[in-house]
Structure formats: structure tokens, C-alpha cells
Amino acid sequence: MTRAILPILQDAGKAILEVYQNESLFNTEYKEDRSPLTEADKRSNRVICDALIRLFPDIPIISEENQQDSYEIRSGYRKFFSVDPLDGTKEFIKRNGEFTINIGYVEGEQVTAGYVYVPVTQKTYVGEKFQGAWSVEKDGQPIALQAKPFHLMDKGVRVVASRSHRDPSTDKIISLLNHPEIVSIGSALKFIKLAEGEAQFYPRLAPTMEWDTAAAQCIVEEAGGSVIRFDNRQPVTYNKMDLLSPYFIAFGRMMDPEALYEMLDKLG
């Protein structure tokens, strides 16, 4: 599957960059939830869905830019692709390069493979259940990813936070840490920072959708980190009745997770 999906990501990335390099092509519009949609989102989605349907005709696709099947139908999916054809559209519009393409492969409720592609660097991040996580440079050279070990109250823990979506609850958690260093970045790149060991902690108490997190969750987990629900401390799962993701905490190789659970219990 990985061998088949890497070229799809590259082709979708080219479609996105064709628009990115010419602002007159953006054709930005806004959905009902006021999130932006550009021509690049649409082109990338067409490339990805056409290729996945051709190569894996028996595997359904849940994409941000497709009409979703009812839960009555989706609940019968044994496996599916979770696709965000352009994660970080706000960053795309700002032209800061902090956007990705996310393809997660889900079996049952668990994501078992994840692919995150960064069009501006042509770099791919991959996670496969029980096989580890790695990045692939544009020359094809793979590099293993390892999350950095840390203790929650270490001084200067690097915390990734959204550049465009920050909220008081997330800031409250960050304030409880020991002189944390904030790393602001957009899209699934927040998860990637954890997998690369360049940051250790990512609290998200604001809305996300399943396609925002699926691919990157697998990469973080296979690099030695975790992505857990804020409410019950269990790993985030997929294809729920509501495709809105639960609030979550993602982190690298935390050596004292009980300290985090105590912190979250105090926050309620």
C-alpha cells in the first residue's frame, strides 16, 4: 500500500502547488462552518480519490471534500481511507507553506497506516502499525522517526500549538507546565514535530475532524508517542457516528504518563 500511495501524494502535491503558485487560481469560498475551501483542495481531492478508487476499488473513502455516507452505511465499513486533501487551508491561503496532504488507512476503528505529505518540501511521513515510522525525502531516502523521551514537568518542554486555532482551555493546560516553549505551526505538522522528536506535547481542546488526525496519529504512535482522548484517556478511534474528533492530548515518549492523567483529572 505504501508503495502505491506515495506517488498519489506526489501527484496531489503537484496539483496543489500549481494553484499555490498563482493566487488568481485560489477561488476561495467558505463552507457552512466558515472554513475556507480553495481550488487546490478540490484538485487534490480529485487526484487522490480517482487514484484510490482505481487502485483499491473495494476500500471506501471518507474525505473532507466528499459527500459523506450515512452512519448506517459507514458503520458497515471494515476498512476505509480517511483523507484530508489539503490540511491547513488557512495556512495555504497565508502562503506560509504549513499545509499537508493526509491519508490514513483505518481497519475497524483503529488507524493502521498513515501518510502525511508536505507539498512545499516534497517530504513524506509514513507510519505503519507494528512497522515503525519514517520520513521519505524527495530523493527517496527513508529516515526512521523516534519521538523524544521526556517527563511531563521537565523544564522547557516543547509544546506544539495551532497557529490559527488556539483556545483558552488549551492555554490553561500549557500554563500548568514548567516554563514550556511554544512551537506554533499549522496542519498535521504539529503531530509530525512530535514524531520527529522536535516537540513533546500537543494538547488540542478545540474542534478537529477525523481526517485531520487519522494519518498523523499512526505516525506519532509508531514513533513511540500517543494520541489519547481528553475525556477517557483512551486512544482516539475512528468512523464514529459523528466524524468530529474528541478533544485529545498527543505527546511523544512520555516517561511518566500518570502525571498527565493527574493533571487532566484536575482539569475535569
Could you please describe the fold and organization of this structure?
- The protein is an alpha+beta fold and 268 residues long.
- It has two domains: 2-144, Fructose-1,6-Bisphosphatase, Chain A, domain 1 (2-Layer Sandwich), CATH 3.30.540.10; 149-267, D-Maltodextrin-Binding Protein, domain 2, CATH 3.40.190.
- 32% of the residues lie in helices and 27% in strands.
- The chain contains eight helices and 16 strands.
- The strands form five sheets. A seven-stranded mixed sheet has the order 3-4-5-6-7-8-9, sandwiched between helices.
- The protein is globular and about 45 Å long.
- The chain starts with a helix and ends with a helix.
- The model has no long low-confidence stretch (mean pLDDT 95).
Question: How are the SSEs ordered, and which strands pair?
Answer:
Layout: H1 2-20, E1 29-30, E2 36-37, H2 39-55, E3 61-63, H3 71-74, E4 79-87, H4 89-94, E5 100-107, E6 110-118, E7 123-128, E8 132-136, E9 142-144, E10 149-150, E11 158-162, H5 168-175, E12 181-185, H6 189-196, E13 201-204, H7 210-222, E14 226-229, E15 248-251, E16 253-254, H8 257-267
Parallel strand pairs: 3-4, 10-16, 11-12
Antiparallel strand pairs: 1-2, 4-5, 5-6, 6-7, 7-8, 8-9, 13-15, 14-15
Helix pairs in contact: 1-2, 6-7
